[in-house]
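Can anyone check this?
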Amino acid sequence: MKNYWLVKSEPDAFSWDEQVKNGVEPWTGVRNHLAKKNLAAMKLGDRAFFYHSNVGKEIVGIVEVAREAYPDPTAESGNWVCVDMKAVRPLPKPVTLAAIKADPRLEELALVRLSRLSVAPVSAAHWAVLCEMGGLDD
């Protein structure tokens, strides 16, 4: 069974365009224990929304787990992990945080409830709603 996620990146640090250009990229730098637990739970082939945080505040694309959790090479200490993400496709229509918060079907989405969490699970039902909002019939 495929699981779904949402991963956040500040576009001035690492953007969707960079993800697309690089193809497969390690998702490093996560330093929150719940986010680390979510990274460790990701399986090969799981899909995630790529969310631009701070600037833009919108879902802009879909990535796929290309390598499961391994030690984060950017961590100076601790047992932090990363996964490799592969660009799948952009959303035809980015889905803004304002639109997400305005849709009552998404009130339980982790992005709404735990707004600071950088790696969060997305239910299959929420995935379908967000794909629809973004112009996909995924």
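Reply from J.R.: I decoded it. The CA atoms of residues 7 and 54 lie 13 Å apart.
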